[in-house]
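Late entry, written up from scratch paper. The run itself happened at the end of the previous shift, but nothing got recorded in the book at the time, so transcribing now.
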Amino acid sequence: MEKLLELIRLISDPTRYRILKILEERPAYTCEIAEVLGLSPSTVSAHLSKLKYFSIVKEKKFGVKTLYSLTIPEELKEIITPILQKGDRWKIVEIDRKKLKSIKLDEICPKNQ
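Output as recorded:
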């Protein structure tokens, strides 16, 4: 029961929810997520670490860059999927999607970051 309640608290955070919605669109680098949300990469990384704890996101390293993708474990899909679907028409989610589509990776994620 405690684990379930911890999961609900985790995804009910507005920033982490928005990160999940971004990753639902496509895999993204930390710098891209930070740009969309208007947060520092370190703040985004802290949120991503919490999501990784529940294996909701996975990471893949490319040199010093880390690409994150959504990977909801089968046993959590019936809980998380309906919650994520609720935000599909929210204005902030639409804004985040537009920002994500307009990002030019080389401009915001220098090759040495």
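The longest strand covers residues 57-62.
(Scratch paper discarded after transcription.)
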